[in-house]
Amino acid sequence: MNFRTPLNAIMNSYRFIESTFNDMVGGEENMQIADSFKTPRSKKKFDHNCQSMKKFITMGSNSSVLLLSLIDDILDLSKIERGTFTINKSEFVLEELVKECYDLFYFQ
Amino acid sequence: MIHSDSNRLKQALLNILSNSFKFTFEGFIKITLNLIEKENNQSICISVEDSGVGIQDEDMVKAFELFGMVSDKKLGNLKGSGIGLNVTQKYIQHLGGKIILESQYGNGTTVSILLPLSKLPSEIEKRLDMFDFPSIEEEIAENTDRSLVTLFKNTYS
Fold it and tell me: What is the tens place of the pLDDT at every residue in A42-58?
């Protein structure tokens, strides 16, 4: 089994949970759910739960990206030692790449 | 737009950043992008500066060794895989660049990646002409105005 296979499943699950979560609590529907609470206190609790859920989803998905990078490092290191390491050049925007990397450490 | 190995550069940056976040308990972590022009060669400099614990001079070489862990009396034994900087250095070397480690013990660390901007292979250049995109050189020239771009500055306690 490939090293990355289980991790890819985790990452795709996070992607799915993230988009479902955003659909659920974003926009008009959220307002309807929030309005359905009778007391302001339970609304506050709902908002709080949403926030911490969002935080944990981000933490989980960020950590899975970092773990994938670590696994790639180890696989590349063994390729370098075997002498089969090759680089794949492509065009990309450096600023975006740097921002992407930086955002992964948001909750650390 | 630059032409390089985005995956390996990302892995390299993540290694450097995770070191910075690991050893910085208060202060800042700053990423700076610089375009360096020397005669006909252009290179890009990505530096990650932090206000962390720093590295002692005698440990600098050890930090790049495979499975080399720098121990510190103040921090005790830190756990890690010990491959981060070693594999990062190898990536950058394969991309034809250099990695520079500057540090003052107790006063933070700066890790800089110097990467030469390679010219496009003629095939891609032709393809670009076909679709009438601005060439890479033009875009770089546009970006040169901001020769010093401080991208992110995170302050936390």
Answer: 778 888 888 888 889 99
In a domain, B147, yes or no: no
Whether B151 is covered by a domain: the verdict is: no
- Tell me if B138 is assigned to some domain: no
Distance from CA of B114 to the nearest CA of A (A): 13
Instruction: Identify which of B5, B11, B21 has the shortest CB distance to residue A69.
Output: B11
Of A77, A98, A104, the CB nearest to B83: A77
Give the residue from B48, B66, B51 showing the smallest Cα distance to B114.
Answer: B48
Q: What is the ipTM of this complex?
A: 0.81
pTM of the predicted protein model: 0.76
Q: Residues of A with CB below 8 A from B33's CB?
A: 94-95, 98
Decide if pLDDT at B39 tops 70. yes
Instruction: Evaluate whether B1 touches B139 at the Cβ level (below 8 Å).
Output: yes
B83 vs A73, A91, A100: nearest CB: A73
d(CA B64, CA B96): 17
* CB neighbourhood size of B33 (10 A): 18
